[in-house]
Specification:
Chain lengths: 122, 210
């Protein structure tokens, strides 16, 4: 299996983000679900257009990165751009009061129900 | 862009889209040494063929091992696998297979932020491979269970495993076959059961202290 982005020229990654190497925020968790709010438009940079296509159904940041073949950190920057333009919305993970505390028991109960419903065979 | 081509070539078929109501992405991390079966376990329970992606980290010298190297920046790239399980209309569980080796510690911090908990997958023939992972989880306060992947080697008693890993009393140890969907699901159930017990008693303690 090819490691996505591995063989890419670093210059290309630099170009994709217009030379920025960090998004300056932790807004997009790996599992934040991203949803397109608009369709790609003509002349749009191909990575943005591809994200808008992928996220027609809710898609986690880590999936977007994998499908684009780009490192997560680069994808976070692209997502921040689209978010600033109102072209995507983000559904952030809810686990409890704060990330440092144990998850909310109600959410865990919900997870247990879902897991127990998985059939042992496909 | 060739990755976009592979996407159009049918990756979308291998990736059933989430329902439009999907709103809460949760994570569980499976950690363990090389070849212990992390990806196998993720694959066994995932709704999608496991995907692979990478993270690059640029580390400035600040606060890192050697203050004399403050000027230096190093970029490290590491790949990891993940899968997902749709639990209900709104909740999606993502499973990450994380390399347990020491040099990946910086990735752990990013992966584990906000994680529900972790499964430490061990091969009883190579228990020492998981020492570092367990240290790190304990240090971070990330709750975990230990799952012994059955490789058909000599049997070790649970007591032997507990002693070799120096586990605290409350940490559950379960057996599994990572190739089996039912068995891998049971490992996740055991972890979330453990988390539920911890979270409920913490909530209880908060209530009685006010």
């Amino acid at each position: 299996m090819r490691r996505p982005g591995r063989d890419d020229d670093p210059d290309r990654l630099y170009t994709v983000t217009g030379g920025r190497s960090r998004s300056g925020s932790d807004t997009f968790d790996l599992v934040t679900l991203v949803v397109s709010e608009s369709e790609p438009v003509a002349g749009m940079q191909s990575e943005y257009a591809e994200i808008l296509r992928i996220c027609r159904s809710p898609t986690a940041v880590v999936e977007v990165a994998s499908l684009l073949g780009l490192p997560v950190s680069i994808v976070r920057i692209l997502l921040a751009d689209l978010h600033a333009q109102g072209r995507i919305t983000a559904r952030h993970p809810r686990t409890g009061e704060s990330a440092d505390e144990l998850p909310d028991p109600e959410i865990l109960k919900q997870v247990l129900v879902g897991l127990r419903n998985l059939t042992p065979e496909r | 862009m060739d990755s976009a081509t592979s996407h159009r070539n049918g990756e979308t078929d291998a990736r059933p889209p989430l329902g439009s109501k999907a709103a809460n992405g949760l994570k569980i991390v499976v950690v363990g040494g090389f070849g212990v079966g992390k990806t196998t376990m993720v694959k066994s329970v995932s709704d999608i063929r496991p995907l692979n992606t990478e993270e690059t980290m640029t580390r400035a010298g600040e606060g890192i091992d050697d203050p004399s190297q403050v000027e230096e920046k190093t970029t490290t790239t590491i790949a990891f696998d993940f899968g997902r399980i749709s639990l209900d209309a709104t909740t999606v569980l993502y499973l990450f297979g994380a390399p347990g080796q020491e040099r990946f510690w910086f990735l752990w911090d990013s992966l584990f932020r906000g994680t529900l908990g972790a499964v430490v997958l061990v091969d009883t023939r190579r228990l020492a491979d998981s020492w570092y992972a367990i240290d790190r989880l304990e240090q971070r306060g990330t709750p975990f269970i230990v799952a012994r992947n059955d490789f058909g080697g000599p049997r070790h008693s649970e007591t032997q495993v507990r002693e070799a890993l120096d586990l605290s009393e409350g940490v559950p140890v379960v057996e599994c076959d990572a190739r089996s969907r039912g068995s891998s699901r049971d490992v996740l159930v055991a972890l979330v059961d453990h988390l539920y017990t911890l979270a409920s008693s913490a909530a209880e303690a908060r209530r009685s202290s006010t």
